[in-house]
Amino acid sequence: MRQRCQNPNNKDYRYYGGRGIRICERWQHFPNFLEDMGERPEGKSLDRIDNSGPYSPENCRWVSHILQMNNMRRNWRYQGKTQRQWGEILGITDTAVCMRFKKYGDVYIPKWAKRALRRSAGYRRTGK
After folding, report:
1. Domain spans of the chain?
2. Under the phi-then-psi rule, with left for phi > 0, alpha for psi from -120 to 50, and beta for the rest, what region is 13?
3. Residues 71-83: pLDDT tens digits?
């Protein structure tokens, strides 16, 4: 975290410090970070809730790898769901979802999936 945000020689600096991602003043001292976040739970990693926000107690949490992948900046959303989530709903890979979107300009949701989505709380009709 510190290298990516504070060391211009780090290979990932351009994605973090170069974009203005900072570490809060309190976390410049590891004991404060540890007090705020606790030890890393097994199978979890540090995630920023707002990807454009700082590393701070208000903006960080421990999450699973899958949840962190859904929160990536490059992961596009369609109707409020990520590419990976659409893959899970449709039973196909996220690559296949991306290919369908490029080919059809839509995720191309089969009728059976549309019915299932209508039953879920987050579905909104788009007229397609």
Report:
1. 2-70, 77-119
2. alpha
3. 665 566 666 777 7
